[in-house]
Amino acid sequence: MPKKQLLFVFAHPDDEAFTSGVTIAKYTNAGAQVALVCATRGQAGSAGNPPLCTRAELPAVREQELREAANILGIQSLEILDYADQHVSDVAQDELVAKIQQAIHTYQPQVVLTFAPHGISGHPDHRAICQATTQAVRRGSKASPVHKLYYCTIPSRSPLTAGRTLYTDPEEAITTEISAPEYVPVAARALLAHRTQHQSVERVFPGIAHGDYRHVRPVNHYILAWHNLPAYEIKGKEQDLFAGIFA
Ligand SMILES: [Zn+2]
Predict the structure, then answer these.
(1) Residue spans per domain, the chain
(2) Which of 23, 54, 158, 211 meets the CB 3.0–4.6 Å disulfide criterion with 220?
(3) Which residues surround ligand 1, an ion (CB under 5 A)?
(4) In whole numbers, what is the pLDDT of the chain averaged over residues?
(5) What is the CA(35)–ligand 1 centre distance, in A?
């Protein structure tokens, strides 16, 4: 039986920890291989308040933070595409699609995950990486290992974070819930590894910097956007990203 492989495709360092912390920790701890492709070094983001580094140092610092978060979550392979932060939508889509297809070829994932089309925060980079990843999966040849594509989202019923409008999906649109409360402390450590992003991390997860993890989500939510499994039907909510592939 081939090894279980997941590929996450995101835009910025910290997207993985914000959207999928407990999910990644759960699967890597269960022996799955997890690869992460990140389109930028997050160089347009905050350097912290007070700043933890100069603007010039920020790309390298954020890359290091991402490597640390990836290690904490057990991610085995990390690839940074090094596009300009906030300009992922300016990249020719065919070029971005080709890079993601290359990653699919390299890591041989059965399951690919990316942002929902709305990008949760609505960031144009999030939306662009969703579009390109969707195309990369849909245009896959018969030799493609991919059986499922998921969109990361947040249920509409979850409380909106202070002062921010987030794009969410209604309960009935959410196909998949990965629950792993035992990995909340690991997910919290991954979030805190993004030290330059402490303001947004503390805004979204109040108390986290002081060891209060009650706002760190014990469940991550996904929408099965595409699959190629004949006769596969979801009954209730899926609890496993590999359902229908290995079971
Ligand atoms: Zn982002």
Answers:
(1) 5-227
(2) 23
(3) 11-12, 15
(4) 95
(5) 17
